[in-house]
Amino acid sequence: MATLRHMEPAKKHTDKAFFQKETEMNLQVGLSSILLIFVILTLVSFAVLALTSATADEKLTNRVMERTSAYYEACNEAEQTLMDLDDTLSSIYASSQSEEDYFAQAGSSKSFSEFVSDIQTLNVDVTILYPGAADNPEGRTYRIESWKVVTGSDIVYDDYLLK
Hints:
Elements: H1 16-95, H2 99-106, E1 109-115, E2 120-128, E3 142-151
């Protein structure tokens, strides 16, 4: 027959030192978890800020690139217009009998504008020169007096942050 042994119930820890050690251990795990969560949240916040900044920089770069391209396209158009003007003035010079006849056909100055953007234009002013004049040894047909980008007056500024 089997003998039954007398089993004592598990001893409950009533020792104050045991509970103090367990509490300290739980507290250390809790503080390190909170610190780890704080560090992760900080890193995520910096990552979001960096991404936002990079996106804003990309948009600004694209706008600057578009404006620069539009300006140089307008410059190319203005150069083409000046080349056409030079050809026209050269043919007027070849067919004119005198300096007075040349200026009567060509005029004394020309102005034109090229579209840059919806608020800007490239304005070019030239003075017509007589190619055979003593003060024009290179034989140029015109002199550029003004080459400037003019911004229209109908600009609406974003003052959202000022309100």
